[in-house]
Write a structure and sequence with these properties.
Layout lengths: L15 H16 L22 E6 L4 E5 L5 E2 L3 H14 L1 H8 L12 H5 L10 H10 L5 H16 L7 H8 L3 H12 L7 H12 L2 E2 L1 H12 L14 H14 L5 H7 L4 E3 L4 E6 L3 E6 L10 H14 L20
Antiparallel strand pairs: 1-2, 1-7, 3-4, 5-6, 6-7
Bound molecules: glutamic acid.
The site of glutamic acid has 11 residues, from loops.
C-alpha cells in the first residue's frame, strides 16, 4: 500500500484544480505497475491491449475529470450486475429482491456452483453469477426482448448516453459460457428462476457485453452517489433508497473474494469486471470510473485498485475515515 496521508471522509471535495491534480498523481502512481494478466476465459477478451489505462471522476455537482484512455470502449461485464440490481429493485421493490436473491457474501468465486449447493439453491447475492442471473430474470417484461430493452435503456440512463453491444464479445462468450448455463439450470432445478433458463443466460450475457468507457463508469457511479439522479444529464434513474441499498451490497460483495480487503484499504463501495473496469462510489461526492485490463488472480484490475487507493486517501473518500472534532468547535445552543 502506498504511503500517502489519509484525509477524513467528512466534508466536501477539494477544489476542481486540486481534484484534477490528485487524479493526475493517481494516474502516474498506478501507471508504474505492470503486473497481472488480461482475462482470457472469454476468448475475445484475450486480445485486449494490456497497457490501456484511464481514470475518470464525475463529481455530484456535475464537474468531471479524466486522464489517459478514458474514451476507449470495453465491455462492462460484471459491473452490469450492480446497475441491473438497482433497476430491478427500483421496479419491483427492495424487499422482494432481498428475499429472492439475498445480500450476503459467499466467500467463493463469482461463478461458483458449490455456493449454490451449499445454500440449498439460494443465489446469496446479486454480484455473483447465480444471483446476477436470478436478478436479471426478475426484470419486468412480457418477453426476453422487452427485458433486454429495459436493461439496455436503464444502463444507458445511468451512463447518460445510449450504450451499444459488443457483438464480438457477445458471440465469443455465448459460445463458451457453459458454466453460466449450468448455473442457470441448477437455479431452475431449485425453483429459483421463473423464466426459461437459456433465455435468462442470453439476456445476462448481453448485459455483460454492453460497451462502456471509464467516462461512462464515472457517470454511472456518480448517479449512485447522487441519490439516483445522473448529475450530468439531470435525469432521475432510480430512487435514493435504491442507491443506498445498492451501495451496501457493493461494499459487501463488489470485488469478488477480495471485497473485504478492498473495503479495508479503500473504504468505498465498488464493482469490478473481468474486462478491467471498476466503478467506485463515494456517496454525496463522486463516482470514479477506472479501466486497465491487467487483473489480479481474483479478477480485479490491478492499476484500477492502486489508483482507487490513491484517490480515496488523497481526496478523503474512505467512508470510514473520520477526524476528532476539536473540542469547543461545535456551535453552542444558548437558551
Ligand atoms: N460475463 C462474465 C461472466 O459471467 C462476467 C464476469 C465478470 O466480469 O466477473 O462470466
Amino acid at each position: 500500500m502506498e504511503q500517502i496521508a489519509q484525509r477524513a471522509a467528512t466534508g466536501t471535495l477539494p477544489s476542481w484544480e486540486q481534484v484534477d491534480g490528485i487524479v493526475a498523481d493517481a494516474y502516474r502512481y498506478a501507471s508504474q505497475d505492470t503486473g497481472g494478466h488480461v482475462a482470457d476465459y472469454i476468448p475475445a477478451l484475450a486480445s485486449a491491449e494490456p497497457d490501456l489505462f484511464g481514470i475518470s471522476v464525475a463529481q455530484t455537482d456535475g464537474a468531471t475529470h479524466g486522464i489517459g484512455d478514458v474514451d476507449v470502449a470495453f465491455t462492462i461485464q460484471s459491473i452490469s450486475k450492480a446497475f441491473v440490481y438497482a433497476l430491478v429493485c427500483d421496479l419491483i421493490g427492495h424487499d422482494s429482491v432481498r428475499e429472492r436473491i439475498g445480500v450476503n457474501n459467499t466467500g467463493l468465486a463469482f461463478n461458483s456452483v458449490i455456493a449454490i449447493e451449499l445454500n440449498d439453491g439460494h443465489p446469496m447475492n446479486p454480484m455473483v453469477n447465480a444471483g446476477a442471473m436470478a436478478t436479471t430474470a426478475l426484470m419486468p417484461g412480457a418477453s426476453a426482448e422487452e427485458q433486454w430493452e429495459a436493461i439496455r435503456s436503464g444502463l444507458s440512463a445511468f451512463a447518460g448516453r445510449p450504450l451499444r453491444l459488443d457483438e464480438d464479445v457477445l458471440s465469443s462468450e455465448a459460445s463458451t459460457n457453459h458454466r453460466n448455463r449450468a448455473i442457470a439450470q441448477l437455479l431452475h432445478s431449485y425453483g429459483r428462476l421463473d423464466r426459461d433458463p437459456s433465455q435468462v443466460v442470453e439476456t445476462y450475457t448481453r448485459q455483460c457485453a454492453l460497451q462502456v468507457t471509464a467516462t461512462d463508469l464515472a457517470a454511472m457511479g456518480s448517479t449512485l452517489a447522487d441519490g439516483g439522479v445522473n448529475p450530468i444529464t439531470g435525469e432521475r434513474v432510480v430512487s435514493a433508497t435504491v442507491c443506498r441499498d445498492t451501495l451496501a451490497v457493493l461494499a459487501a460483495n463488489g470485488l469478488y473474494e477480495r471485497s473485504g480487503e478492498w473495503l479495508f484499504d479503500i473504504g468505498l463501495p465498488a464493482k469490478s469486471g473481468v474486462a478491467g473496469g471498476i466503478v467506485a462510489v463515494c456517496p454525496g461526492k463522486a463516482g470514479i470510473g477506472l479501466f486497465s485490463p491487467r487483473l489480479d488472480s481474483a479478477g480485479n484490475s490491478i492499476r484500477g485498485r492502486l489508483a482507487a487507493a490513491h484517490l480515496s486517501r488523497a481526496l478523503g473518500l474512505n467512508v470510514f475515515a473520520s477526524e476528532a472534532v476539536v473540542t469547543g468547535s461545535a456551535s453552542q445552543i444558548v437558551t
